[in-house]
Amino acid sequence: MRIAFLGDSLTEGRPGESFLARLGPLLPGDLLLNHGRAGDTIPGLLARLEAGELAPADLAVVWIGTNDAFLGDWYLPPLSGTGRDPSDGNARAADSSGNASAAGSSGNAGEGGAGAGGAGAGDRAARTLRPLYERILDLTLDRAPLAVCVPPVLPDPFEQGGIADRVAGIGAMTAAVAAARGPRARLFELAPAFAAASARQPRAHFTLDGVHLNAGGADVVAAAFRGLVGTLRDLRHATPPPP
Questions:
Q1: Residue numbers of the domain that contains 124
Q2: Helix or strand holding residue 234 (H, E)
Q3: Which one of 33, 56, 58, 157 is CB 3.0 to 4.6 Å from 4, fit for a cystine?
Q4: Pick from 187, 170, 185: which is nearest to 140 by CA?
Q5: Which CA distances in Å does 103 have to 17, 55, 155?
Q6: 96: Cβ–Cβ under 8 A, 6 or more apart, which residues?
Q7: Does residue 52 belong to any structural domain of this protein?
Q8: With b meaning 16 or more CB within 10 Å and e meaning fewer, what string describes 116-146?
Q9: Is the pLDDT of residue 130 over 70?
Q10: Omega before 15 cis (within 30°)?
Q11: Distance, CA of 112 to CA of 66 (rounded, Å)
């Protein structure tokens, strides 16, 4: 199968460790296409898809939203259009190195955005970003018969105020959009895989900085996606072709 992985630095594999480098040997018969871009956001991924970046694939995995959670409300695009406005460019500039956590730890998003958002921050971000995510899924399904929607996840506890709420809000939005697409979209959460790995190794850490994967985190993600692809392959073979 041709499997396209769309996302940010967690998909691109830098900074940090690459789960795709580990997943490739686990799926030797499949072609894995890396469409990750460090520092990318939901509006940024939409712009890439509208520019025609995604070629036809048998399966597309969309894992995006972590940078949106860390950047804060100041960068959120308007509801009209595609979101390619000056604030999106500023959001990229704030994290041109691909460090999703840098925006929060530097104080920019933490003081003026995510950190100041409190309990309602995730809801506001989700409402604003939902039409953009819906468009991402539309464009993805134009190129692949099935899309897997992966919500953002915090593999290690992250104590900065507002971040967990924002991640949860974007995750709930991701789940709702996937459910609305019916059988052509499937939700796949990585949080249970990290919870199981943490239970096996209570002192383990899975990130370099709270966000970017270390070797252990990349192993967890690769194993989870291997299981997912195996399940989808079995379903694909079990489904009779249309008459």
A1: 2-238
A2: helix 215-238
A3: 33
A4: 185
A5: 20, 31, 18
A6: 39
A7: yes
A8: ebeeebbbebbebbbbbbbbbbebbeebbeb
A9: yes
A10: yes
A11: 17
Q: Is residue 243 part of a domain?
A: no
Question: Rounded mean pLDDT of the chain?
Answer: 83
Adjacent-strand bridge partners of 150:
63
Q: How far apart are CA 139 and CA 142, in angstroms?
A: 5
Reading the block at residue 224, the tokens are 């989870």
Residue 239 DSSP SS3: coil
Smallest CA-to-CA distance from 132 within 72, 86, 177 is with 177
Which pLDDT does position 122 carry in this prediction? 61
> Between these two residues, 82 and 208, which has the higher pLDDT value?
208
How many Cβ atoms are within 10 Å of 168's Cβ, its own excluded? 18
C-beta neighbour count of 27 within 10 angstroms: 18
Render pLDDT for 134-155 as a digit per residue (tens, 0 to 9). 999 999 999 999 999 999 999 9
pTM (two decimals):
0.81
CA distances from 196 to 134, 150, 166, 192, 231 (A): 30, 17, 23, 6, 19
Helix (H) or strand (E) holding 63: strand 59-63
Q: Is residue 211 part of a domain?
A: yes
- Please indicate, yes or no, if residue 22 is contained in any of the structural domains: yes
Query: How many structural domains does the chain have?
Result: 1
Give the closest residue to 168 by CA, choosing from 107, 133, 122.
122
Query: Can you give the CATH number for the domain in which 95 is found?
Result: 3.40.50.1110
Confidence of residue 192 (pLDDT cuts 50, 70, 90): very high
